[in-house]
Amino acid sequence: MKGFSNFLFALFVLAVVAIAGCGSDNSRQLQSLTVSPASTIAQSGQAQFTASGQFNTAPMSVSPASVSWWQSPPVIDPPGAMIGIALTNQPFTAQCFGFHGTINVTAVAPMKASGSGDSMPLSAFLDLVRNHSSMQDSGFVASTAQMTCP
């Protein structure tokens, strides 16, 4: 009887692993991002931010999420029609660099969970990062937080 129980347990484990492997389809998409803290005052000229992602399938929430970080100011002059991005799940440390006022810290990621995220169109960069006029554009999702530099 003990051998049969072990067999059933092994069969159950294999079934769970097989089902989990089948769940990695291309329909999983990032729905939104959240940057934390949403607003902060820089301490010693800097503050740290993290991003969390909300998806349409399990796991529904991922923290930290893999994103590309942007800080403005300084205002960036995009180099061309496609903007290269590098994804990381590490926190971002925004710097005041002697600036006094509000700095926007933006996290951007591709909507497709399996997306390489190596570049995005200039129009999406302008809407999501520079102008903050949208939270989704051209297959990318963004979230912006603010840091006050006293």
Overview of the structural elements:
The protein has a single domain, classed as Sandwich (Immunoglobulin-like). Helix content is 20%, strand content 39%. The protein is built from two helices and eleven strands, in the order αβββββββββαββ. Strands 2, 5, 8, 10 and 11 form a five-stranded mixed beta sheet that branches. Strands 1, 3, 4 and 7 form a four-stranded antiparallel beta sheet that branches.
Q: Based on CA inertia axes, which overall geometry fits?
A: globular
The number of domains? 1
Strand content: 35-45%
Specify the number of helices. 2
- Low-pLDDT runs of 5+ residues are 4-24
CATH topology label: Immunoglobulin-like
Named at the architecture level, the CATH assignment is Sandwich
Q: How many beta-strand runs?
A: 11
Main structural class: alpha+beta
- Mean pLDDT across all residues, rounded? 83
Helix content: 10-25%
Q: Just give the CATH class.
A: Mainly Beta
Encode the helix/strand succession as letters: HEEEEEEEEEHEE
Question: What gyration radius follows from the Cα positions, in whole Å?
Answer: 20 Å
The termini sit apart by: 72 Å
